[in-house]
Write a structure and sequence with these properties.
The protein has 415 residues and is an alpha+beta fold. The chain is 58% helix and 9% strand. Strand 2 and strand 3 form a beta hairpin.
């Protein structure tokens, strides 16, 4: 049967027709009652004519049903024995119920029903034969409808599985693209910040050697610390891309936090940059993704200042509100040199803020000079006002609070 199905619909229909031909021929082969004439070639020809239309039953089901019903009166021309079942009519009616449209199959069913009554009356006319004939034809019709429902259900499952596969593939591609974009932003932030600071400090090193040797030593130490920090962050970020045989080989260091902002400021101040950092408001611990976004925004803003603003002063202000967090990076340099909002750095900062429900504003400073970057994040309200004293998050060790005075950073940072 599997080989016949693989051969195609024609092979299946021909096999079914041959099987029906065997069934309707059996009454001619078995011993017949005494006095009956033996079967001749006309008997076999007429039965074959009634079976032959079944070969095309799935291509024209209604036409085949009409042909089968119309061929049955030919049996009256022969001395044909009675059949235990009307095989050809039942199979044709089953095919119509399974494949024809609703209106067509209802008309065909009603037509067969109308033919049953005169056929039975011309044969025996008994109620038993009428009930049996009605039952078997109704069973063939119902079986055809059940087959149609089962096939429709199987098609729906196949289509759903294909749709789910397409959806999963699209989601996987989107996730891969998002991860690539995230890694690209992380690498841009890390490398741009580290290389920019190292270049600035290296260029100021020869001048510091002649003018202030102690500052030159600090600059070289800052270059080394910046390089080591960049390598650590890159190793942590790229470690997730390789399939390590042992999870212990991967660096599980956390993402940057607000507590690391003073260290970021100190590294910039070590190269001779005038930097101030202050925190105001009642601080509370934020989610890791918010803290990482704020850290990267400040890092990129400082990088842009070093690259484009020259030797200028920079102020960083972190404001903790009851339901918000705002960070501002302002320099007193020459201001924006082109169209606002251009460049991969500003685009990356804006995407980071938007990814966490925040907004980012960039442009000239309040008095029209310099350049200002302000990121604003809305936070869920909590019952507690926050956790004061968290390192680098607004406690006494980082700033003096709402007074706006710089905190206890080194003199090079707040000067």
């Amino acid at each position: 049967m599997d080989r016949i199905r693989r051969a195609g619909p024609w092979a299946v229909d021909i096999s079914v027709a041959l099987l029906v031909q065997v069934a309707v021929t059996i009454p001619y082969v078995v011993p017949r009652p005494a006095g009956s004439s033996p079967a001749d070639w006309l008997d076999y020809l007429v039965t074959t004519v009634t079976v032959l239309p079944l070969v095309g039953r799935r291509r024209a089901p209604v036409l085949v049903l009409v042909a089968v019903v119309a061929a049955h009166p030919l049996l009256l021309l022969t001395d044909a024995p009675g059949q235990p079942l009307p095989y050809t009519t039942l199979l044709a009616l089953y095919t119509v119920a399974a494949q024809a449209p609703a209106c067509t199959r209802r008309i065909a069913g009603a037509g067969v029903l109308a033919i049953i009554f005169p056929s039975v009356s011309l044969n025996t006319g008994e109620a038993r034969e009428l009930l049996f004939t009605l039952f078997v034809h109704a069973a063939a019709y119902v079986l055809g409808r059940l087959t149609d429902v089962r096939q429709a259900y199987a098609r729906a499952l196949t289509e759903r599985a294909a749709q789910l596969e397409r959806t999963n593939r699209i989601e996987a591609e989107q996730a891969r693209d998002q991860e690539r974009a995230r890694i690209a932003r992380e690498m841009h932030d890390i490398l741009s910040h580290a290389v920019t600071l190292m270049l600035v400090q290296a260029e100021s090193g020869p001048v510091a050697v002649r003018a202030a040797p102690e500052r030159a030593e600090a600059a070289f130490e800052a270059i080394s610390a910046t390089g080591r920090d960049a390598m650590t962050q890159l190793r942590r970020m790229l470690g997730v891309l390789r399939d390590a045989p042992d999870d212990t080989e991967r660096d599980r260091s956390p993402q940057p936090t607000l507590a690391e902002l003073p260290e970021l400021v100190e590294r910039l101040a070590a190269g001779g940059r005038r930097v101030s950092y202050e925190v105001s408001g009642a601080a509370r611990r934020q989610t890791p993704d918010i803290e990482a976004a704020v850290h990267r925004i400040v890092q990129e803003a400082l990088t842009n200042t070093v690259k484009h603003a020259g030797d200028c002063a920079v102020s960083i202000r972190l404001v903790h509100g009851s339901d918000s967090l705002e960070v501002t990076v302002l320099d007193d340099g020459p201001g924006p040199g082109g169209e606002p909002g251009q460049g991969h750095g500003l685009i990356g900062m804006r995407e980071r803020a938007a990814a966490h429900g925040g907004t980012l504003r960039t442009g000239p400073g309040p008095d029209g000079t310099g350049f200002e970057v302000t990121a604003h994040f809305l936070l869920p309200r909590t019952g507690a006002s926050g956790t004061s004293g968290a390192p680098g998050a607004g406690g006494p060790s980082a700033a003096s609070g709402a007074s706006g005075e710089p905190g206890n950073l080194p003199a090079e940072v707040t000067s």
